[in-house]
Amino acid sequence: MPEGDTLARTASGLRPFLVGRTVTAASARAPGPRVDRLVGAEVRSVEAAGKNLLIRFDNGLEVRTHLRMHGSWHRYQPGERWRRAPARARLVIEVPGSVVVCFDAPVVELFEQRTERLHPSLSRLGPDLVKDPVDVEEAMRRLHDPAHAGRPIAETLLDQRVLAGIGNEVRNEVLWEAHVSPWTRTGDLDDVALRDLILGARWMLRVGAATGRRPRRVYRRAGRPCPRCGTIVRVAHQGRDLPRLTFWCPMCQPVPMLMAESPLPGRNPPDSM
Questions:
Q1: Which of 47, 52, 247, 248 has the fewest CB within 10 Å, making it most exposed?
Q2: Residue 264, pLDDT above cutoff 80
Q3: Catalytic residues
Q4: What is the CATH number of the domain that holds 106?
Q5: What are the distances in angstroms from CA 177 to CA 94, 102, 155, 231?
Q6: Closest CA to 51 of 102, 104, 122
Q7: What is the distance between the alpha carbons of residues 123 and 242, in angstroms, rounded to a whole number?
Q8: 254 class by beta-carbon count within 10 Å (0-12 exposed, 13-18 middle, 19+ buried)
Q9: Contact 114/60 with Cβ under 8 angstroms?
């Protein structure tokens, strides 16, 4: 799933071709929003909000897309052949000189900008770690919410209502960098550790937004030596509602107790060390 830095780069890439231009045609795959209402409107802004892409128009309407696992945005010149099948296009917006296409995104919405503060997803987003400035104190307040105290920190970091923009790769890497076990309860971490995780994730996401690449030490490196201590990196499923692959070094990030819910077949479950 694209993380916040990918969406920030997508917004930056689309902005020069959309902002200030008038929509000449728009279509969405059925069943979908009535994006024909955008024709004749001028694009005012293209912004990322966590893992969401928001396009705002001068007629008061706003488009929101969420790419989830497989979605992507492309930009083409008029008449240029698309790199994906037209049947996979969820949203097409045409302006003078450009055609922008959102492929495979499961979420494409059109709504009034004035209702954004009431939107069930956007209104609950935590501080966006890619944006500058970021409200670190608000991020700390959300991490201290008693509802998260008994939750493994790896699951809390993925909650977009706590911190917006973190995905699976960044959460694995920032926990490794901080020597924190993914199964440590959020409430067991002190303020120094929590602040380090916030700032570490922010640094990774901003590097990714600026360069298109992130530091990678343990993510998708199960069975290889930890670059810090040489212990073999391990992997397990973690999370009840939406299990994700967690990669960690059992020496650098000792598991506090047996908490992994569903290890991968052929892999050892986390154990105390």
A1: 47
A2: no
A3: 2-3, 51
A4: 3.20.190.10
A5: 44, 34, 17, 15
A6: 122
A7: 22
A8: middle
A9: yes
Q: What are phi and psi of 90, to 5 degrees?
A: -95, -30
Pull the structure tokens for residue 187. Answer: 């409430």
pLDDT tens by residue, 193-213 = 999 999 999 999 999 999 999
Say if residue 110 is in the same domain as residue 140: no
Contacts (Cβ under 8 Å, ≥6 apart) of 108: 28, 32, 33, 63, 64, 65, 90, 91, 102
Decide: 255 and 183 in contact? Cβ < 8 Å: yes
Domain that holds residue 91: 4-124
Output the CA–CA distances (angstroms, integers) from residue 59 to 27, 101, 208, in the order listed: 17, 21, 33
Q: Could you tell me the pTM of the whole model?
A: 0.89
CA 97/CA 10 separation, integer angstroms = 18
Residues whose CB is less than 8 angstroms from the CB of residue 241 and which lie 6 or more positions away in sequence, other chains included: none
Q: Which residues does 17 contact at the CB level (< 8 Å), separation at least 6?
A: 75, 95, 97, 98, 100
Name the one residue in this structure whose structure tokens are 């045409």. Answer: 94
Note whether 37 and 110 are within 8 A (CB): yes
* Cβ atoms of 41 and 87 closer than 8 Å: no
Does residue 144 lie in a domain region? yes
At position 137, the amino acid (one-letter code) is: E
Q: Is residue 107 part of a domain?
A: yes
CATH number at residue 222: 1.10.8.50
Task: Report how far apart the first and last C-alpha atoms of the chain are (Å, whole number).
Answer: 32
Query: 65 near 107, Cβ under 8 Å?
Result: yes
